[in-house]
Amino acid sequence: MQPFTRIQGIAAPLLRDNVDTDTIIRVERLFNAVPRADLGLYCLESLRHLSDGSPDPEFFQNDLRYQRASILLCGRNFGCGSAREGAVWALAGMGIRCIIAPSVADLFAANCFQNGLLVFTLDQAIIEHLAVGVAADPAGRPLVVDLERCQTGFADGEPIPFSVAARRREALLEGLDEIDLTLKQQSKIHDFRQRDGELRPWIYTA
Amino acid sequence: MSGQTMYEKIWRSHEIVDLGDGFSLLHVDRHMLHDGSGPVLARLKERGRSVSQPDLCFATLDHVVSTAPGRPVTSDNRRRTIASLRDGVAEAGIRFFDIGRTGQGIVHVIGPELGISLPGTVVVCADSHTCTHGGMGAMGFGIGSTEAEHVLATQTIVQAKLRTMRVTFVGNAGDGVTAKDLILAAVGQLGSAGGNGYAVEYAGRAIQTLEVEARLTLCNLSIELGAKVGMVAPDEKTFDYLAGRQFSPKNELWNRALASWRDLPSDHDAIFDAEIEVDISHLKPKITWGTSPAHVMDIDGIVPDPSSTGHRNAVQYMDVVPGRPLVGLKVDWVFIGSCTNSRISDLRIAANIVGGRKVADHVSAWIVPGSENVKRQAESEGLDRIFKESGFEWREPGCSLCLAANGEAVPPGARAVSTSNRNFVGRQGPGARTHLASPAVAAASAIRGVISDFRTMKD
Ligand code: SF4
């Protein structure tokens, strides 16, 4: 997994609430064998157009200034719905490394941390304030996200603290693979199973 | 010291290592795999690892397989997806319920039906509706593909402990109100993020009186309120339901299991992090008007005035009019199926309404049973005949129109009444408009050709 320590980049606004993972990546893209690396091309595709088919000028993907964004400023309950990890692969494929939202769906957040994407929450007002600050000049006003210090903000502005579970933070900082970590616990897993097999034998005899 | 909640009891009995900071390594009792799992098995192998406990894994095909009679494979990609699961499970020695065999069906239908998901078990699946298994008193939750790989390699999972919430339904529900309406009411009240970070336990007399299949419907929509876990305490109904099922414990083990299951319900003095009441004394059958399951209203109510941009977008996408009823709106498609409402009890309710009537000419109406067993049971009761005679298509088991990943989709702009769980933009196909409701509302709408309140169909 790619480690995450500190990034500085363009922050794009996606401030609507309840952006679900079906919206982030359509199911047919996942089951149509689009390679993981190419999913970014289809990320959020259903939000790009207005109902008359013309590009939505308000949507960040239609604004060239946000083309190289690596940070997403989101609305509430981001990533709700399906557990599909393809949503995270699509965001990563689009170049996103960090997601900031007032609240994030649990399954989506877990998938982000499995893929080297940092997710944390901030007050909605702060996020909106950041988005306004960025909008004036996205490339000239990059955001910094420093996971070592757990701070974000404009390069020339006041740092804003955020929090991430210590375990997740360490895994991201070092780019650790969870399976490798768990396999180191093999003897404890073995002991558990011995004990459990006597306590709940019906689990193991299906 | 206060007592423990059911969630805490299950958590403790599965905790292998406390990893600190609220995380633990938990044992996984049951890992369900579906047609999205082929690539996960392949990746595991690529990385030089193997399946740790194949006996605790159960696989089937549901998401991408056609539900048309004869099961045509409609694209090369689907053929590859299906082949990759078949190869993966064969090589790993994982039990597999292939299409056409007893046992095949939607993962969240077959888990309980075959006695795979048992009270007190940890059940995982790379699918967000794994919360459904909570209806058995199991702790079921969705995981991602990387986590699924972790489970395959170790039969364990790293999880952050959730806070606990009890949602108590108070009062007596009115006529025709089903589990689907109860949970839609809760989603409407709490919002689609109200359960974020929580494991929910549903309680109250209304829940105790629900049959097991209805509890599965109830728990199925937990994720639609943001809760990755939703549970109902197991009781005599649960035990009766499980007795004699294919993978349920037998004989002496059954007695031991039963004794342990009776200790599972939350202690009387257990403290939940949040307590919510949902008053159902004036509850009516529900239907959604917008593009989130939280956009819900009474079947005989009116579409609310938009209170936010999100609502305005939803109104526009759904082509509904604030201040007007939904009843009477022309319906193009009706879908009775999905892991929410495709069990035998759902089909009986629908058959009861459509029996002797005809589906309106302009409506495409589908019944997609949740599993091969449900299908065979329905056929033995003659329900398939009732549906076919009234003009419904009687299909093969699978996810089908719930997610439109198998080539079956509601066309752009068409309005559907569906018994599934998600009305997101494009969920049933690009541009499709979905109204979620119970099987009774869906069946009545198919007959009348417009969104209908089945309670007014007593002629
Ligand atoms: S029926 Fe629908 S919600 Fe259920 S598992 Fe299948 S696709 Fe998911």
What is the domain tally of chain B?
Answer: 2
**What is the structural class of chain A?**
alpha/beta
- Low-confidence parts of chain A lasting 5 or more residues at pLDDT below 50? none
Chemical compounds bound to the protein: iron/sulfur cluster
- Tell me which oligomeric state these chains represent: heterodimer
CATH class of the domain at 7-142 in chain A, named Alpha Beta
Assigned CATH superfamily of the largest domain in chain B: Aconitase, domain 3
- Terminus-to-terminus distance of chain B: 58 Å
* Largest interface pair: A-B, 54 and 76 residues
Helix content of chain A: 25-40%
Number of DSSP-assigned strands of chain B: 19
CATH top level assignment of the largest domain in chain B: Alpha Beta
Q: What spatial form of chain B do the alpha-carbon principal axes imply?
A: globular
Keywords:
heterodimer; A: 206 residues; alpha/beta; Aconitase, domain 4; 4-stranded antiparallel beta sheet; 8 helices; 33% helix; globular; B: 459 residues; Aconitase, domain 3; 5-stranded parallel beta sheet; 19 strands; 31% helix; binds iron/sulfur cluster
Secondary structure blueprint with pairings:
The complex is a heterodimer of chains A (206) and B (459).
Chain A: E1 6-9, E2 11-14, H1 21-24, H2 27-31, E3 71-74, H3 86-93, E4 98-101, H4 106-114, E5 118-121, H5 124-135, E6 143-146, E7 151-154, E8 160-161, H6 166-174, H7 178-183, H8 186-199
Chain B: H1 6-14, E1 15-20, E2 23-27, E3 30-33, H2 38-46, E4 57-60, H3 76-92, E5 95-97, H4 107-113, E6 122-125, E7 139-142, H5 145-154, E8 156-160, E9 163-170, H6 179-190, E10 198-203, H7 205-208, H8 212-220, E11 229-232, H9 236-242, H10 251-261, E12 274-279, E13 286-288, E14 296-298, H11 309-318, E15 333-336, H12 344-354, E16 364-367, H13 372-380, H14 383-390, E17 393-394, E18 415-418, E19 433-436, H15 439-448
Parallel strand pairs in B: 3-4, 3-6, 4-5, 6-7, 9-10, 9-12, 10-11, 15-16, 15-18, 16-17, 18-19
Antiparallel strand pairs in B: 1-2, 2-8, 13-14
Helix pairs in contact in B: 2-3, 2-5, 6-8, 12-14, 12-15
The site of iron/sulfur cluster (SF4) has 13 residues of chain B, from loops.
